[in-house]
Amino acid sequence: MGQVGGTCAPLRSCRTGYACRMKRFLFVAVILTVLVIALVVGIRALRHRPGEASVAQSKATIVVVVDPAHGGRDPGANAEGVFEKDIVLAIANKVSALSVEHPSLKVVLTRATDVEVVSDERIALAAKEAAALYVAIHVNAFDKPSANGIETWVDNTRAQGDPSWTLARALEKAVIASSGAKDRGVRTQDLFLRRLTIPAAATEVGFVTSPDERAKLLDPAYQELVARGILQGIADYVATTGMTPVVSTGTQPTTQAASASTQGTAARSPGTAPKKGTGS
Ligand SMILES: [Zn+2]
After folding, report:
1. pTM for the whole structure
2. Count of structural domains, the chain
């Protein structure tokens, strides 16, 4: 017994010492592991911070007011139950939807639905949005059904050499190239656009009184060609005049307006239509 007890006592003492050393070793190891993990997580968090901040960067844009004329109780020109207000709205909504292909442009519509907008509100929108350019869209009409083609108007108070003439020529050239319609040139009219201080022009995209042109203007594919021409004209004007995009904190282009189009969804295929049409 004594021998056993004598043997056991040192053994217990030895076990106790070993256990203590192991406990100390494990304690230090756990502390070191926790410190290393905390260090790694901290470094990763610091490295990720700049990437997260860059998500909220702003875009440089040139704001363009695109103005589908008439609307609501004002139908504009009409023939055979086809109204100018509906055609220009469909084209303007396509201009807005397709403007995503021109990241430096922000298109703002004066109306995206069939509502009446007085000229004061159209002018005020340009000021509110700090617009650089103003492009109105109209449809023409004439007594004789043979009249056809596209012409672009400048207010008759704008002298030759005024930037509005440059904008009008760029629009006329690009819309003719895109649509293949007859080129009726740039002309002057008495327009409310004279109240704007920025370059402004109004494109008459065809004659509702021409049976052939009326049919084309109702065709979503042709409307898209006209819309692409308008956007190209704006882009050409910006390029030739060396306009510099300004940083905008505004919202995205009003692409959602396309869903309000009276002509369906045929224009929802940016990049698929040819730049030039035959317009035969
Ligand atoms: Zn009109």
Report:
1. 0.69
2. 2
